[in-house]
Amino acid sequence: MAVPDKRMTETDVVAELRSGMTIGIGGWGSRRKPMSIVRAILRSDLTDLTVVAYGGPDVGLLCAAGKVRKVVSGFVSLDSIPLEPHYRAARQAGSIEVNELDEGMLMLSLMAAAWRVPFLPTRAGLGSDVLITQPHLRTVISPYPGPDGSAPEELVAVPAAELDVALIHMNRADQGGNATFLGPDPYMDDWMAMAAPRTFLSAERVVPTEDLSSEGSFHTQRISRLSITGVVEAPGGAHFTECPPDYGRDESFQREYAKAAADPEAWKVFAKQWLELESESDYQAAIASRREQQGAAR
Amino acid sequence: MSTSESTESAVAAANHPTRAEVCCIAIAETFRGDGERLANPIGVIPMIGGRLARETFEPHLVMTDGFAGFTSSTLPPGTDPYVVGDDGRLTMADGVVMETWNPYPQMFSVLWNGRRHVMMGATQVDQFGNQNIACIGPWDAPRAQLLGFRGAPGNTINHTTSYWVPNHNPKVFVEKVDVVCGVGYDRAAALGPVASRFHEIRRVVSNLGVFDFDTPDHRMRLRSVHPGVTVEEVVAATGFELAVPADVPTSRLPTDHELQLIRDVIDPEGLRATEVKD
Predict the structure, then answer these.
(1) To probe the interface with B, which of A126, A205, A217, A251 has the most B CB atoms within 10 Å?
(2) Is the model's pLDDT at B182 over the cut of 60?
(3) Are B128 and B246 within one domain?
(4) Do B150 and A188 touch (CB under 8 A)?
(5) Angle between helices A264-274 and A280-297 (to 10 degrees)
(6) Domain total of chain B
(7) B162 lies in which domain range?
(8) Rounded to the nearest 5 degrees, what angle is found at the Cα of A121, between the Cα atoms of A115 and A125?
């Protein structure tokens, strides 16, 4: 019995998106981001998006392109470069709306959405300015007595994320959307996939289902096709974020990105060279030739 | 390096520990008594200090590899604990032992479960130990966007937290932080005893001294000054009124053994000097 064939291209994914949508993006900082789909969004007319993410250059690039109305995040960082320059600029200009949550609160918002409950309670956030800067966040009184017969506890009620779609990138997938992460950490991608009514998955390689367990233990088979609407085969699709063991972060490219982001003129040049390309295959070809030149320079 | 050489270098240097090395000791001391807990220092000198504590007086501490695992190995700061093996699979680097796989989703369970003592950085910290790493200036359009809340709210309300400040000055030690990320004692008190029952800001360690909150209303107190630093210097570099005891001790010096561990085992590359210069 074959799993259904859900294969499509980045362009097909973008055709399923609409301006004004709320989009969850998997990965963590500058790690295993579905960048090929993000690049396809950059080539589109989509705008007014709300992005929900443990943000990295995905959030930065979408902000720089003026496609974002609002960012809901646990942080936005490039990891080896702590502050994402485009997100930082957008924040300081006051040009985007933000919900900046405690990292664990964002996880709970995805879990609540995945489980179809309106909120999940937590102690995280109590006493902090998360609740003051973002007054839509409410607390809830426990219906049970507190410890040792004290008054019932008040907890933060983290609201369920309201995603229209989610985008995640994995190492291997089959054509139906079963997928494995072969790196150190699944991040919240499994929750992200279940939190959205439709999730599009890109993967370094699409393989027969029976090969999914050949490169890692079966514990890495974390994503079920139950949650997946479309599958994009995208070798190098996470570039320039890391996607181990297939490849590490392209640190020299990321440094170039961050440097260009600091200067509008330099950014125009960078965008023309790397972003204003016809297709993902043009991007991958340009990256391959950059690598060859770097190799020759060494 | 031969054993005799390393012993000599440690003994020769013992009389002249650097400020960075004094900070490593002060940080190690913050984990004293933690037993079998996740000691989770963030930053170069905090990581050295935490690993030093485990190598010496707190051998049962659990520590991360900086990514998705707990490791029993004593890793120099900046070590990449994983490699891609010949079979293309991700595996532990030579000499790195994983105790437990602890990816991010699991880490939140660990911290909400409470068996953790984190040492975070602070862009601003105030007299009650409120910490800011989110932004400076108005929330809607900050003058300087920083890291965001990251894990600070959840950490401080769920388990012990300490802070590390490598550049003690009045812009960091402020009267009032712009955004409360990590919850301080005044905010915790306002929540009441039940909600704040897991809250503890144990120490703040800076390049000038060590601070705690062992005062009747949990205001920050100068616990010790590092060798070569005066109380007046610390007071001048602090933007609020610090509780200063009549007799302020000097932060303890490393033993010969501790110095040798720092210099030859835990931080042979000398990265500590990049965070705090002499």
Answers:
(1) A126
(2) yes
(3) yes
(4) no
(5) 110
(6) 2
(7) 116-252
(8) 125
